[in-house]
Design goal:
Length: 81
């Protein structure tokens, strides 16, 4: 979902970012950063999704659908002297 879609869904479900923030004990700005996708917080993302009645994986797919990290690769290539 886009930030605007999330904001509309919050409003449609008769809640506010401030209410979500109060429930979690965080600032309204913290919730705003998550809704606008400027920061990541699993706890806040899950509560935003719950507040709008959607699965967090559908609201914030770009954060939940990232594949597993690959082990760091190092090069054993030696340069000629």
């Amino acid at each position: 979902m886009t930030p605007n879609e999330i904001k509309k869904a919050i409003k449609k479900n008769d809640t506010t970012q401030k209410a979500i923030a109060n429930k979690l004990g965080v600032s309204e700005m913290a919730v705003s950063h998550i809704v606008n996708k400027n920061q990541i917080s699993n706890r806040i993302m899950q509560e935003v999704a719950r507040a709008i009645g959607k699965d967090p994986f559908k609201v914030f797919p770009e954060y939940y659908l990232i594949g597993p990290k690959h082990p760091r690769r190092t090069s054993n290539i030696k340069t000629a002297a």
